[in-house]
Amino acid sequence: MAPAGRVACLRTLKRKKTLKTKARTSSVRKRAATENHVPEHKDTSKLLTTILESLDVAKAEEITSIDLNGKGAFADQMVIANGRSNRHVSAIADQLVDKLKAAGFNHIRVEGVPQCDWVLVDSGDVVVHLFRPEVRSFYNLEKLWSPLAPDERIAV
Fold first, then answer.
1. Count of H-run helices and E-run strands, the chain
2. Is the pTM for the entire model greater than 0.85?
3. Helix, strand, or coil here: 131?
4. Which whole number is the average pLDDT over 130-134?
5. Per-residue pLDDT tens for 62-87?
6. Which terminus of the chain has fewer Cβ atoms in its 10 Å neighbourhood, N or C?
7. Which domain holds residue 22?
8. Is the residue at 150 inside a domain?
9. Neighbour tally for 121: CB within 10 Å
10. Sheet with 118-122: strands ordered across
């Protein structure tokens, strides 16, 4: 039988080895996760082309694309389009999501589907706003995000 002091020392050593092993494996996992983390599609032009083609096929009206480089960090492009009615806006959004998933863009978030006055499809690098005509004219996002809009407000 081992003396009590030696048993306590062995338990402490085992605990330290376990903690070191856990720390080493967690740091290896973190490093592997950051090294292997590559965005699914870095090509914004392919994404934008897929979106514009899908909107054209779905018969969206007044399609506008706005370059957001230098304007906002949440996306590279913004696309704004109209549907003729709530049902048309919903159908455009559904077709767009299906086409994007078929093209391999899987991380898509959709907001505003129950009402379908204003549907936002966030595909990461490109954000798509689908409106009914009255709602689009009310919010007027083109004026807010256009290249001619000032970057800063000027105090008068």
1. 5, 5
2. no
3. strand
4. 92
5. 998 888 776 667 777 889 999 999 99
6. C
7. 1-37
8. no
9. 23
10. 61-67, 77-82, 126-131, 118-122, 109-111
